[in-house]
């Protein structure tokens, strides 16, 4: 299922009588955490998300991990002030190294680029054992994350574009398919190059992974705006390449021009607005 929306309700909660608020992006991520999860928030910052989820009774246990000492200290204070030391374990460490094998079943990673996110997942090793749900929000290189998910037998079941403070964020949730053959079959159906047929016979695999299959099949004006912005970025690169004397610049510019052509063709096939669903 896909939700593609401009607005998302914020969530309020209190710690020692002080009202705190989750951003719309964190609120959306919280909605996607399964009830009763054993949860890990990687790159937790002040542990707002695990504290909210624990207070609301949605999770039974959490690990809040961060690679920086400052956020870890702040997270420990937040958890202690909320009286949740027995539920949330705050840990200093790089990526998923803070987790033991089988310790959690749901992991959230947000607020970083897709390349770093995939590195964290790739290096997780046994820490990923037992994890069946990934709730992710990469702010660039979303295609790298989708490729990692496909390669590792996770299947997207939700994607969302959410606009907050003038920035369009990508959110995605993926669930583990334990049967490798079924995972491949489901992902083949998901990343179907003919999804816009007959308007467009085939979309390149590269663009499918960039745009997101569930977002593509449920596009709205936020999706169109995001990709008009992407076109503008690519056209700036093409302009820079056109002024370059490097021998490979002309070929590179041609590749970028083909990307822009295909993106425009895709957008022309899509409705500008579609009802969103949860």
Task: Offer a quick outline of the entry.
The protein is an alpha/beta fold. The protein contains 10 helices and 9 strands. The chain has 2 domains: 180 residues, Vaccinia Virus protein VP39 (Rossmann fold, 3-Layer(aba) Sandwich); 65 residues, Orthogonal Bundle (Helix Hairpins).
Q: What is the H level of CATH, i.e. the homologous superfamily of the largest domain?
A: Vaccinia Virus protein VP39
- Give the overall shape: globular
- By CATH reckoning, the class of the largest domain would read Alpha Beta
Number of helices: 10
Number of domains: 2
User: Average pLDDT across residues?
Assistant: 91
**What's the SSE pattern?**
EEHEHEHEEHEHEEHHHHH
Query: Remind me, CATH topology of the largest domain?
Result: Rossmann fold
Rg: 20 Å
The parts where pLDDT drops under 50 for at least 5 residues are 1-7
Number of strands: 9
Query: Kindly, what is the distance between the CA atoms of the first and last residues, rounded to a whole number of angstroms?
Result: 7 Å
Strand count, sense and barrel status of the largest sheet are: 7 strands, mixed
Q: Kindly estimate the percentage of residues that lie in beta strands according to DSSP.
A: 15-25%
Task: Give the class from helix and strand content and strand pairing.
Answer: alpha/beta
Keywords: Methyltransferase, Transferase
Organism: Cohnella lupini
GO molecular function: tRNA (adenine(22)-N1)-methyltransferase activity
InterPro entries: SAM-dependent_MTases_sf, TrmK
């Amino acid at each position: 299922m896909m939700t593609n929306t401009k607005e998302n309700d914020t969530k309020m909660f209190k710690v020692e009588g002080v009202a705190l608020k989750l951003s719309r992006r964190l609120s959306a991520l919280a909605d996607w955490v399964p009830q009763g999860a054993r949860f890990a928030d990687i790159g937790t910052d002040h542990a707002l998300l695990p504290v909210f989820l624990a207070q609301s009774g949605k999770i039974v246990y959490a690990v809040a991990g961060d690679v920086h000492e400052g956020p870890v200290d702040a997270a420990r204070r937040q958890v202690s002030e909320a009286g949740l030391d027995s539920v949330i374990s705050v840990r200093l460490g790089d990526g998923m190294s803070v987790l033991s094998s089988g310790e959690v079943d749901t992991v959230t990673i947000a607020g970083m680029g897709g390349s770093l996110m995939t590195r964290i997942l790739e290096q997780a090793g046994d820490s990923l054992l037992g994890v069946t749900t990934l709730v992710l929000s990469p702010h660039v290189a979303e295609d790298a994350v989708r490729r990692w998910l496909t390669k590792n037998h996770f299947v997207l079941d939700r994607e969302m574009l959410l606009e907050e403070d003038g920035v369009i964020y990508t959110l995605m949730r993926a669930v583990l398919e334990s049967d490798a053959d079924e995972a491949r079959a489901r992902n083949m159906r998901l990343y179907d190059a003919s999804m816009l047929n007959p308007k467009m016979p085939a979309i390149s695999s590269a663009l499918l992974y960039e745009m997101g299959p569930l977002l593509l099949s449920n596009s709205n004006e936020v999706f169109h705006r995001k990709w008009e912005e992407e076109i503008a970025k690519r056209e700036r690169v093409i302009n820079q390449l056109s002024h370059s004397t490097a021998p490979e610049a002309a070929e590179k510019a041609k590749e970028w021009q083909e990307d822009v052509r295909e993106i425009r063709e895709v957008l022309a096939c899509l409705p500008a607005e579609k009802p969103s669903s949860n």
